[in-house]
Amino acid sequence: MSTDALITELGNAQALLLAIATDVDDTGFRSQYHPDLSPVGWHLGHCIFTECFWLHETIRGDDSVTAPIKSFYTPPETPKAERGPRLPPQSDLLTWARELNAFNLHYLHNLRPEWQAHELFVDDYVLHFLIQHYSQHYETLLMILTQKALSEHQPEGETLTALQADDLNRNSFDIPSGHYRIGGDRPVAYDNELPRQQADLGAFSISRHPVSNAEYLGFIEAGGYQASTHWCEAGWLWRESHNVESPDHWRRNAGGNWYGVSFNGGYALAPDEPVSGISHYEASAFANWAGGQLPHEYQWEAACRIGALEHTGRVWEWCRNTFHPYEGFSPFPYDEYSQPWFDDRHYTLKGGSLHTRPAIKRPSFRNFFEADKRHVFAGMRLVY
Q1: Which residues contact 48 (CB under 8 A, 6 or more apart)?
Q2: What pLDDT sits at residue 160?
Q3: Which residue from 40, 304, 319, 339 lies 20 to 30 Å from 201 (Cα-Cα)?
Q4: Predicted local distance difference test score (pLDDT) of residue 161
Q5: What does pTM read for this prediction?
């Protein structure tokens, strides 16, 4: 993609965030609907801050925009619960964001030679980075709107088609043992996808499709949430303490039938669509119940690259391994993007969801969350 095309794509990514932030009312703009998610307005401000930090403070040495707001929009320095009340008025923040977005696009189209020589502009790295950063926050905003819808939803009177349980479809693809490519390439790949690796894998079988809503309902109706034998010790303690009995986005109507809730409201759960809104604990319990296991991310990526996986990109897919540095890992362009999360508590997810922007839908992309997180648009497929 040419530089001009990348700048256009950055403008599109900016516009998507602004559209969501403009569409919500002031309450929706500054409310925190989930303890792991910041308000909509903070995400918008954080993306503008990040854009200005790299384009102006880092490349030009000008921190006039970023210095006054750095402590607020740098995640570790302001707790999530404090972010909403500290946001400026919605109209002021929107005006500020629009003006800086427009200024930054003009700046990128008119770079001085000394700025173009900066290492972040080599192969347009900084453009790829910012587009992907906006794309990740766009999906997070849709998670926020989903949690908002769940908090406001009234289940009485739902007449959506009831979901029926189905047996697990064990249609799988046999992957022979061998050497497989893992990882990405600059300038698109993040630091945790680098350097490219060769994975030596034994033979395995992997499901062609992610686990469906109907298959997951079979787990529920078989008592999967009541049988501790399917769960790891930490997962069972989590399930009991939070009284979890279904995916995060599922609700029951007055007749006891399951349906889903999204940012657009209640909807019928399509039986063949991948289940979404489950934690790593739930995914692992289902896999144990089904007589399989979650794939290691190397297995998932190898299978994806040879075309063995169908319906990827519909839900993020939990992997059984924790997020870790590849051999030869080097942080870039800053330490805090990946390094703090190599903590043996975050698990890798692969593939992307229906709400994932194309900029980050690639086999090598590595998402990561702790095992109890279920507000993510995440499901699974199995290996045997």
Answers
A1: 96, 97, 100, 101
A2: 80
A3: 339
A4: 86
A5: 0.96
And the tokens for 293? 């296991």
CA-CA distance, 215 to 213, in Å (whole number)? 5
For 147, other C-beta atoms within 10 Å of its C-beta total 22
Q: Are 81 and 32 in contact (CB under 8 A)?
A: yes
Q: Which two tokens stand for residue 12?
A: 């599109």
Residues near 69 by beta carbon (within 8 Å), at least 6 away in sequence: 45, 49
Report the DSSP beta bridge partners of residue 18: none
Is 267 in contact with 261 (CB distance < 8 Å)?
A: yes
Range(s) of the chain covered by CATH 1.20.120? 3-152
Q: pLDDT band for position 259 (50/70/90)?
A: very high
109-135: average pLDDT: 96
Residue in 273, 284, 271, 354 with CA at minimum distance from that of residue 318: 284
Whether residue 132 is predicted with pLDDT greater than 70 in this model: the reply is yes
Q: Cα–Cα distance between 295 and 307 in angstroms, integer?
A: 16
The C-alpha atoms of residue 302 and residue 304 are separated, in whole angstroms, by 5
- Both tokens of 236, joined, read 């069972």
Residues 172-379: name the CATH superfamily.
paralog of FGE (formylglycine-generating enzyme) (3.90.1580.10)
Give 64-89 pLDDT, tens digit per residue. 999 999 999 999 899 999 999 999 99
Torsion region of 354: left, alpha or beta (phi above 0 gives left; psi -120 to 50 gives alpha): alpha
Backbone phi, then psi, for 368, in 5-degree steps?
A: -155, 135
pLDDT at 219: 98
